[in-house]
Amino acid sequence: MVTIRHERPEDAASIRFIHEQAFGQPAEAGIVDRLRQSCDASLSLVAQSRDGLVGHILFTPVVVESPEHKVTGMGLAPMAVLPDCQGHGIGSALVRRGIEILRERGCPFIVVLGHPEYYPRFGFERASAHGITSQWDEVPDEAFMILALDARCLDGVTGVASYRPEFDEAM
Fold first, then answer.
1. Which residues of 99-117 are buried (b: 16+ CB within 10 A; e: fewer)?
2. Domain 3-170, what architecture?
3. What was the pLDDT predicted at 170?
4. Looking at per-residue confidence, does 154 or 169 come out higher?
5. How far apart are CA 45 and CA 48, in angstroms?
6. Quick one: which of 143, 163, 152, 160 has its CA closest to 64?
7. Which one of 19, 20, 38, 100 is most buried, by most CB atoms within 10 A?
8. Residue 93 per-residue DSSP state
9. Angstrom distance (rounded) from CA 70 to CA 19
10. 108 φ, ψ to 5°?
11. CA distances in angstroms from 76 to 95, 116, 138, 139, 146, listed in the order given
12. Where are the domains of the chain?
């Protein structure tokens, strides 16, 4: 059984290990470390089994700005599950719990750059259908998605979704 809970300070080394194992490189783990130091407005959740931490998900502020509107929501990134634990619903549990918490907090939207076959099961759809694009030109349209938690906050909002600068280093 896996429990989803908020990250604690003592989880940092395990979270770094999870990302390094899941992605096969240290880039995503480095982003998490930098965001942990610079971003108080984030939501960081872990999946804990009886053997220790097996997954992690991070949500950080994203701004969509047009000449008339500016709306701040959250970006889901990165998410990782230990390779031996993948395919058992841990990632889905992390995403669902994160969405639930952000909805309770009144977050208007969540964006994600991810697998177009995976994220629609949670309600994500192409952000371009809402007139919202990624700040990175090389991102395929079908991979940049949005979940509107409060559609009223997105009325009339179109433009570029800007992530925190820590993500630019990985792109």
1. beebeeeebbbbbbbbeee
2. 3-Layer(aba) Sandwich (3.40)
3. 60
4. 154
5. 10
6. 160
7. 19
8. H
9. 32
10. -75, -30
11. 8, 14, 18, 15, 10
12. 3-170
pTM over 0.70: yes
- Give 129's contacts (C-beta < 8 A, 6+ positions apart): none
Q: Encode pLDDT of 89-103 as tens digits.
A: 999 999 999 999 999
pLDDT tens-digit readout, 56-112: 999 999 999 878 788 999 999 999 999 999 999 999 999 999 999 999 999 999 999
Of the candidates 18, 26, 89, 85, the one whose C-alpha atom is nearest the C-alpha of residue 58 is 18
| Confidence check: pLDDT of 129 > 90 | yes
pLDDT exceeds 70 at position 165: yes
Smallest CA-to-CA distance from 147 within 116, 125, 117 is with 125
Inform me whether the pLDDT recorded for 171 exceeds 70. Answer: no
**Contact in structure between 110 and 74 (CB atoms under 8 Å):** yes
Nearest to 60, CA basis, from 81, 37, 46, 44? 44
